[in-house]
Structures are given as C-alpha cells and as structure tokens.
Specification:
The complex is a heterodimer of chains A (321) and B (188).
Chain A (H helix, E strand, L loop, with lengths): L8 H4 L5 H24 L11 H24 L18 H23 L1 H7 L3 H14 L4 H23 L12 H24 L6 H32 L1 H12 L1 H24 L9 H28 L3
Helix pairs in contact in A: 2-3, 2-7, 2-8, 2-12, 3-4, 3-8, 4-7, 5-6, 7-8, 8-9, 8-12, 9-10, 9-11, 10-11, 11-12
Chain B lengths: L4 E6 L8 H10 L9 E9 L2 E9 L8 H5 L5 E3 L5 E3 L9 H5 L6 E3 L4 E3 L16 H5 L5 E5 L6 H8 L15 E4 L8
Parallel strand pairs in B: 1-9
Antiparallel strand pairs in B: 1-8, 2-3, 4-5, 6-7
Classes of the chains: A mainly alpha (321), B alpha+beta (188).
Bound molecules: iron/sulfur cluster (3 copies).
C-alpha cells in the first residue's frame, strides 16, 4: 500500500490517554468509597459519633479522590482554560454533560457528608478551626444522621459509578467500549476499589478507631464483588464473541494480542482478581483477621482496578476491527 | 426551504491524484501531516481482475451526527441546512467527538488547539455560492456538489441515475456524502 494520500498518523493515534483512565479510576473509587462509608454507617449501632475508622476513611476518600480526578481531567484538556465553558453549556444528549450535572450534586454532598464525620477536627481541634467556624452552624443543623442526604449521596454515587462506563459505551465505533455491560462492570469495580481503599486508608490512618466487625463486613462484601467482576468480564467478552463481525474479531484480538493482552491476563485477572481470591481462601480463611494480609488484599484489588481502566481505555482504542 | 446539500464521489472517475487533498489544505491552512481530506488507494482483486479501489476519507456530514450528540458544549452543532460545524470559541477540546465520529474525520489542529474537520468549505465558499474547493479542482470531475432540492442540479440527476453507496450506512448516521461504487471488474 502506498502513502501518496499522506501520513496515516492522524487516523491511528490514541485520542484519550492515561489521565482519562486514571480519572475513570478515581471517579469510580470515589463513588465506591462513598457507598462503602454509607453501608458501614447504616449497620445497626454505627450511627453515632465517634465514627468508625472505616466510615471516616470512606467519607474522606470520596471528596478527595473525585477532586483529584477532576483536576487531572481538566489539565488533560488541550485547552484547560476553556474548561468553564463546560459549566455554562449543557447538551443533554451528551453523557459528558450528564456526568457534569451528576458531579454538581455528588461532589458537594460528599463534602458535607465528610464534614459531618470530621466535625470535631474541622471545627475544634484542626488547624482550620478558626477559619471554618462560620460553617459549624450549617453542619450542626444537618445533624449526624440526615437520611435524605445519605440516600441522595448513595444514589448519586451509583450514578457517578455508572456514568464513567456510559461515557465510553456511548461510542459505537469502538466495539470494546460499546457494550451494555461496561457501565455495570465499572460500577462493580468502582465499588470494589472503594471498599479496598477504605480498608487500606482506615487501617493506615484510623487504625485505633476501626472495629474488627466492620472490617470483616467489608472484606466479605469485597469477596462478593470481585467474583462478580470476573463474571461480568466473562460475559462481556463472550457476549462480544457471539455478536459476530467486528465484535468477534475485537474480542479475540483484545484477549490475545500484544501488550494489552498481557495487561489483561496479568494485571486485571492475575493481580486484580485471582490474587484477592487466593488470599481470601488461604490467609484470610474463616474470616481470620490478619492485618498484613488485609492490607495486601486491598493493594492488589486497587492495582487491578487501575489496570482494568487502563486496559479498557487503551485496548478499546487499539482494537477496532 | 433549507438546502439539502449532497457531495458525490465517483470512484470510477477518481484517479487518486490528491489534487483535492492539496487544494483543501491550502484553502484551510491545514497543518502538515494533518488532513481534513485524504483519498486512499488500494490495489484489490485477484489477477487478472485487478483494480484500484479508492476511498475518500473526510467528514460525511451526518444528519444524525454522533459528534454533535456527544459534544457537551454544543461546540459541534448543526446549522439550518444540517451541516455540522465546530464553534472554536466554545470547544473545550475534550476530544469526545473525535472518538465518537465513526468516519475518523476529526483531529486537533495543533496550531489552534481546537478540533477541526471538513466543513464543506461552508464559510469560505459554499455560503458565497461557490463550490467546495476540492470539487472545483478535481481534474476528472469525480466530485459533484449541489442541492438535492433543486431538480435540475447535477447531484440530483446523478443520484437518481446511479446506485449510490452511503458510507457505513448501517450506523444510520445518514451521510450527505455518497459514493458511486466501481462498476468494473475486481472483487474486493
Ligand atoms: S462524519 Fe464524523 S465529524 Fe462528520 S458529521 Fe459525521 S460524525 Fe460528525
Ligand atoms: S472537542 Fe470540542 S467539539 Fe469536540 S466534543 Fe469536545 S467540546 Fe465538542
Ligand atoms: S469540502 Fe472543503 S473542507 Fe471539505 S474536503 Fe473538500 S475542500 Fe476540504
């Protein structure tokens, strides 16, 4: 084939790069952490201060990771200074616009929720106590158990977790993106990363405040979500395989060719799914409470989810049939 | 009544000279190694039934345009005649549209840091009742452009005489660009 038509570079380069994958990871983690914190808080007896270390860890992670992710997203734009235009124009048929609107609600709620959990530090003992005094009244008036706020936060956490999947699955010229299972897969892996990050963070920073019972509850939850991810991945690829044409081709290529196939088998499946399951049936058998292994478990789950986002984003743009 | 623009590309007449592609870059100052338009050529078939197959790579002006529906800011929009344009002032260069376009018609212009594509030469020519520059320069008249609402236009007549192929028609994007496929010989 000749190149009289000119360079083909423009037609083969990747459009979205790793910062987008990291954003997808962080947004999913944030949503998962919010859900984790709420689920622990909703357990009988956990609904009053002093809050469990895991509730605090999740509550803190949710706003921090979403902000980090958004910063990354904005600075990845070719013209970051034009970002504000996204905030004044709304195209309701665009998943990106819907995501922005969801974040408008989710992000402030996650901050308020965190503020309730860190009230003494924010308004009394912490370094910003003086500065934040004026807001104390507002947070106090919301109370410790605002059912409406918690339910809305949970709902929007689910929405944020799912939207990161729809953002990609809306693109129908990329077979690996364009599958109906992707949003569910992202929600599930977001939840498992949120659980893992909350355990990790909670045991590292709020160790004395973590109740073993709650940690075990989360480990069990994670042990249900991780096999679920495996099932979703399996269904996603088998489903593509049976769709015929380009989709079959892409499903095979994405699992067998080049560096991205390695990332999938080693990173996503090996580290992210097989290792936690292995730890669960060996070191943490019969719900043993061994902190070292619990931390290791959290780390491999997190690494696996990062690999999953990278894999979907890059393999999705690489293999197009 | 609005215009129903159509651009026809006749694979039988095209000789792959790239005059359209060059004219397009000059007209719109497209930076080196970037393209609003390429004409790809490939030898196809089984000897002795060989033939050149040509493909025009450029925006096909979808009526149901995925680039417009994914754009969060309406920077990609459709005008009254259904042509898809990019408002450079509103584009945040998120590149969502580049991914969404099934025809790989879009790119980021590195000089302006804004998304760009074929605009049917609307601003510079078509709005002034001139033909798009690629159409007017083609030495073999492989390109035709006009309004389907005008019964005596070349595109109207040709469209009703020939079997047209709309690129990736199964995606239901309803392109305004159509091909006249090779009539002769080779199997692809
Ligand atoms: S070809 Fe691509 S850029 Fe042109 S209108 Fe269709 S989707 Fe948009
Ligand atoms: S890059 Fe510009 S034109 Fe394309 S979707 Fe983003 S804002 Fe819209
Ligand atoms: S119509 Fe104009 S912008 Fe489009 S390919 Fe032809 S010359 Fe380029």
């Amino acid at each position: 084939m000749n190149h009289i038509a000119g360079s083909l570079e423009q037609y083969s380069t990747l459009i979205w790069h790793w910062p987008i994958a990291v954003y997808l990871f962080l947004a999913g983690l944030s949503a998962g952490a919010a859900m984790t914190s709420l689920m622990v808080k909703w357990i009988e007896g956990n609904n009053k201060a002093p809050w469990d270390g895991l509730i605090k860890a999740g509550a803190l992670l949710a706003p921090l990771t979403i902000c980090l992710g958004l910063f990354l997203l904005i600075f990845d734009l070719t013209r970051p200074l034009h970002f504000w235009k996204l905030l004044i124009h709304y195209n309701f048929s665009s998943v990106m616009t819907l995501g922005v609107l969801g974040l408008f609600i989710y992000t402030p709620l996650s901050f308020i929720y965190a503020a309730i959990k860190f009230k003494p530090w924010l308004f009394e003992t912490g370094p910003f106590a003086g500065l934040l005094k004026p807001f104390k009244g507002i947070i106090d008036s919301i109370g410790d158990n605002p059912a409406w706020l918690e339910r809305t936060l949970f709902l929007f956490a689910v929405i944020i977790g799912i939207y990161t999947g729809f953002l990609l699955s809306a693109m129908y010229s990329y077979p690996l993106f364009n599958t109906p299972l992707l949003p569910i897969l992202f929600l599930a892996s977001g939840l498992s990363s949120g659980v893992a990050a909350s355990i990790l963070f909670g045991l590292l920073f709020f160790k004395s405040e973590v109740n073993q019972k709650n940690a075990k509850y989360l480990l069990e939850l994670d042990l249900r979500v991780v096999p679920m991810e495996l099932l979703l991945l399996f269904a996603l690829f088998v489903g593509m395989y049976f769709q015929g044409g380009d989709k079959t081709l892409v499903a095979i290529q994405a699992l067998t060719t080049g560096v991205w196939a390695y990332v999938f088998w080693v990173g996503v499946i090996g580290i992210g799914i097989a290792t936690p399951l292995l730890i669960a049936v060996t070191a943490l058998k019969h719900h043993a409470y061994r902190v070292g292994y619990i931390l290791l478990n959290s780390v491999v789950v997190l690494v696996g989810v990062v690999f999953l986002r990278l894999y979907i984003l890059y393999a999705g743009q690489t293999f197009i049939g | 009544m609005g215009k129903a623009y159509r651009l026809l590309y006749d694979e039988n007449a095209c000789i792959g000279c790239q005059a359209c592609s060059v004219a397009c870059r000059v007209e719109h100052g497209v930076p080196e190694d970037f393209f609003r338009l390429q004409v790809r050529m490939e030898l196809k078939g089984v000897f002795p039934r060989l033939g050149m197959s040509y493909e025009r790579m450029a925006c096909v002006m979808c009526e149901d345009a995925p680039c417009v529906s994914v754009c969060p800011t309406f920077a990609s929009f459709q005008d009254k005649d259904g042509l898809v344009h990019i408002d450079e002032r509103v584009c945040i260069t998120c590149k969502y549209c580049i991914l969404a376009c099934p025809y790989h018609a879009r790119f980021v212009n590195p000089l302006k840091n804004v998304v760009e594509k074929c605009d049917f030469c609307y601003e510079s020519r078509v709005s002034k009742a001139l033909l798009p520059v690629c159409v007017s320069i083609c030495p073999t008249e492989a390109l035709m452009f006009g309004d389907m609402n005008e019964r005596d236009s070349l595109v109207y007549e040709t469209s009703h005489k020939e079997a047209l192929i709309f690129p990736k028609a199964h995606l239901k994007t309803k392109p305004k660009v159509a091909f006249l496929p090779k009539r002769k010989g080779m199997k692809s």
